[in-house]
Amino acid sequence: MRTRRGRRWIRLAKRVASHVVLILACLFALFPIYFIAVTSFSALPIASITAHVLLPNPSLLTTASYNAILFHQSPSFLSLLENSLIFAGSSAAIGLALAAFTGFALSKFNFPGRRAFVYFILLISLFPSVLLVIPFYFMFANLGLIDTYLGLIIPYSAGAVVFSGILVKNYMDSIPDDIEEAALVDGMSRTQAFFRVLIPLCYPVLGLAAFLAFIGPYTDYALAHVFITSSDKWTLALGIYTLNSSDTGSMPYGLVTAFAIVMSLPIVVAYIVFQRYIVGGLTLGAVRG
Amino acid sequence: MTGIRLENVTKRFKTVVAVDDVSVEVADGEFLVILGASGSGKSTILRIIAGLEVQTSGHVFIGDMMVDDYEPRDRNIAMVFQSYALYPHLSVFDNIAFGLKVRHVERDEIDRRVNESARQLGISEVLKRRPSELSGGQRQRVALARAIVRQPEAFLLDEPLSNLDARIRSSARIELKRIHQQLKQTFVFVTHDQSEAMTLGDRLAIVDHGKLLQYDTPQQVLSHPLNRYVASFVGSPEMVFLEGNVEAAGTAFTFVEGPVRIPVRGVGKPGPVTIGLRPWDIAVGRSARDGGLPATVTGIERFGSSDQVFLDLQGPPGSLPARGGSAVAIRAMVRAYDFNVGDAVWVGFDPDRALFFDAEGERLESMSLLNRLP
Amino acid sequence: MADLRDQKLAVRLRREWPAYVYLLPVSAVLLLLNAYPIAYTIYISMTDFGTGGRGSLLSYHYIGLSNYLDTFTTGSSTFVTLVGNSFFWAGGCVALFLLVGLGLASVLNQPIRGKSIYRTLILLPWAFPAFITILVWANMWGYQFGIVNAMLATVGVAPVNWVLSTPDAAWAALFITNVWLSFPFYTVVFLATMQAIPKDLYEAAAIDGAGSFSQFLRITLPYLRPTIVFVGLMGFLFTFNNFYPIYLITNGGPGISTQIFITESYNDAFGAHGATPLYSIAAMYSVLDFLIIIALTVVVIWQTDLTRNWLK
User: Fold this and answer.
1) What ipTM score was computed for the predicted complex, to two decimals?
2) CATH number of the domain at C76-259, please?
3) Torsion of CA C171, C229, A277, A218, to 10 degrees
4) Which residues pair with B57 in a beta bridge?
5) Fold classification of A75-235 (topology level)
6) Which of A182, A200, A201 lies closest to B81 in CB terms?
7) CATH of region B2-226, choose from 2.60.120.560, 3.30.420.40, 3.40.50.300, 3.40.1160.10
8) Tens digit of pLDDT for each residue in C36-79?
């Protein structure tokens, strides 16, 4: 039988241990971020980087790396950014429309063949998407679409469609049928009801779908590496990979990390904006499952 | 001109028959209540009229026009859903105006009509708010306003009062009746609440398992139910049933249940029979003059101005007192009385109000109680 | 809409046909950009397209299943390695994800100060795209200049060649990186589920004499079981074909000790080092990967009845 006093010590020890564990977890999670942040503001030779990271010397902080990345590289950062936005933006727009239509059809209609269709698209989505590069390469080469904008946007648009479509379907399932019926009685066709009533009610999940549809192409290396041959179409992903694999021995440390930060900026901002929906949507799905 | 007509409408879902050969004719401007338990098919009938469900066979006429092939939006009807189905992302004003906007009514006309309906229903102050900010009663009125503003040929209401607090429900009921009298339009109202049906309906259509059991005015349904289901469903407090057999002894027929014996006449042949009586039509008193059936008081439930008395009927004088399971239990509503629980009393049935049903639940018109008791 | 499944086909078609119109674009996309390429891959895998020697890019022949037979016989050690690695990679990662996720969620589930701060901090790495953070980790694992070795040096440990020396080191680097990438997700999911467990269950157990570990076993875990199964299986399938961590950090090395199906296939097709592209072999590995995933998914759905009430 533990005494009251003994129990208090145990509780205290548990609380301390908990905090220790959590602090360690945070350190583990944040260290690479910290690493990126610190080195991106440095331009030191490799040898002294460790000491600097572990104990940053404020006088050595500089924006030289950012300068180099943004203004002094070829292809220019602006060009890389532009291409990434074109690819990711267009694909996201197309992917979002596709996901919305698919989710609507699967959720609010009970058409013959629905079950088979869903199984079919789920089956198809099991194929590792990265490996679709191989057939894509030949298909698009035959069509002369290698190294064109259209040629990459098309496969990118298909990327998140199945997953986003399922997300939209699940969300629309939770919208009661009688809102759509009220719209029908009020005088709308099903299409009008879709655009004027259902879509506005789905903005959260559509935002999430747009986010997912954007982030895939934006960070894609596998497909871009194979499809893009001319440097004027290089994306940020290609840029950072090349930078990382080039000889880092002679370069000042920090170029890659500065690049990483700038490239991540749009995503981080979008993430903060959508954070509620992303975390909520994922935990909701997992808890239910 | 007729308001709404259903001709032999049947709706089948694979093996389940949700609506079974229902024919109803609602006069123009009439308030019809479709009354039934959950799953009886009442909502399905309404949705078929609206066009949200397609019937398996039969025809639907709205204002003399056959609308079988028409989409909901072309049937010129308005519907109030049980959950009100207000558009969450629009203001109250836009909710009400929605149907008009879709039909490209002019802006000024929309404003006029919306404001007028809002005034009629007392929701003018909340026009700018969202549905989520309103109370249940307010939402219900917004749903009504949305329907009224469309000036349709008929109004369909699917249990619109079920989600309201009990307190608000009766005033909402009165208001609905008032609107109906003002508009003079055809209303079709679905509910499972029989008191709602009795107060609101010009005529009632009682459905059970998809079948139309009776289509009559509330008074007729109450006093002349066509079968046992209708009799038990309508009227409060619920009807008392005595289930027994009619035995013949020569030319005399007696209704027997347990120890209770009641002489009856007008019987075809002996067999199982159910007697139905409303608790109001059962008299209870201390002396034999009050009634011819002895009974014991087993409980009294006080309601204020009148009380419900629980009784066990006994056999004819001289027989053994019945107890527990073998007793025939009934209920009577009484106003003034001087007995207590456990007392021996006398019970009388009003012979003009006693109803008889056969084994299938159908009315036996010819049977009646033999004696005036007393 | 009401249960239309029971109505006659013609009636359903008459009402529901707009669905087909809405699904037209998606179907076109999926057929052209998913179904057809998959079929094409299967076809390529049965030719000698691009495998130097007998076939080249311009002339190739249909050779049926001989690619597969070769792999299962002469190249079987490669195949076995790939299978082993893929399962080890997916299984090991998921095990770690679940352990770390459950552990951290349990710690966070207590009433302690600053809980939401911890949670936000732990989730912060998630804001950065995985591709970028993996590149940075690859950098950190570097032999000569990587920060991990540098920090180890400060405590007197000799630098380890994570990527090129031993499989153990390579796997360690991969597992640690992947755990870093995923543990916030699992922690948050488990935490959310744990928080839904009614508190009085624990109080009743405490009165009954159960200590905190016993409470965890008998109350928390059973409640979490569906979630654990779901995210565990999803995680397994996802990790099995997770390309970037392995490609960017070890690229299958040393040798092929960390090579999984998907990286092997990609390298066969587009391998650097001037090797001849082995498109048909790459296609074959794609097909094998696909078949394994299908088999696993079928088993998962069958065993857990995941899709039971999903389609009306």
Assistant:
1) 0.81
2) 1.10.3720.10
3) 30
4) B10
5) MetI-like fold (1.10.3720)
6) A182
7) 3.40.50.300
8) 999 988 888 888 776 654 444 556 677 778 778 877 877 678 88
